[in-house]
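Justification of resources, computational component.

The compute hours requested in this renewal are based largely on the per-chain cost of generating structure records like the one below. Each record pairs the submitted sequence with a full structure-token output. That output is archived, and it is also reused by downstream analysis tasks.
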Amino acid sequence: MAGIKEVAKHAGVAIGTVSRVINNNSTVNPKIREKVLKSIEELNYVPDEVARSFKLRTTKMVALLVPTIWNPFFSELGHYVEDELDKRGYKLLLCNSGAKPEKEQYYLEMLNQNKVAGILGITYNEYEEEFTKDIPFVSIDRVFSKEVPCVSSDNYQGGQIAADELINAGCKKLAFMGSFTKINTEVNRRKEGFVAQAKKRGQDVIVFEKPDPIENVELFCNEFHEQHPDVDGVFA
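The structure output for this chain reads:
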């Protein structure tokens, strides 16, 4: 496999010039850049991303910090995030915190030290000062401050839609099943919207919750059914 030396020799330029082209340095003459890129293509040269990251103190890698990969939502989110990053020449680094504060802190420190290009985070702990450092951070479903951008859906309306769907289907005994944390997140708005819309339409809602993360989902569901066997409509 060709290396950077072979590319430089093939293009008739210095190794440093090849390096500048790879790193998209704007000081390289356009004709020289084109010549080097042609040599890279002909020799099928693949730059060493690890070596580049050490030199530049940054990587073409974005981290996704999630509480658990067992949750189907987080798994699907990771799939689509990786797909979009790949289209843009980036790779995904998955960090599974288990919703543990100390593990989240460990990952944040590690990611800061290794200078990833950015972090997408679903976090339930108080580390806002960690998110305003040099590395771009985007929060998912949780608002921190104006310093930290957040991506979320209209969770409240989602809860309202769920209530309407169940009631319109003929359900008479509604329940909300979920988990909770000490941190108020946008996800909590789903429950609020669900309960509010059900009451607006004349129905009460049983709220069945456990602390997040729920380790044994089967046990959680069995407990719910044992305690509320008459429920005929569930938003979970």
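The domain at 56-151 is CATH 3.40.50.2300 (Rossmann fold). The beta strands are 61-66, 91-96, 118-121, 137-140, 150-151, 174-180, 205-211, 233-235.
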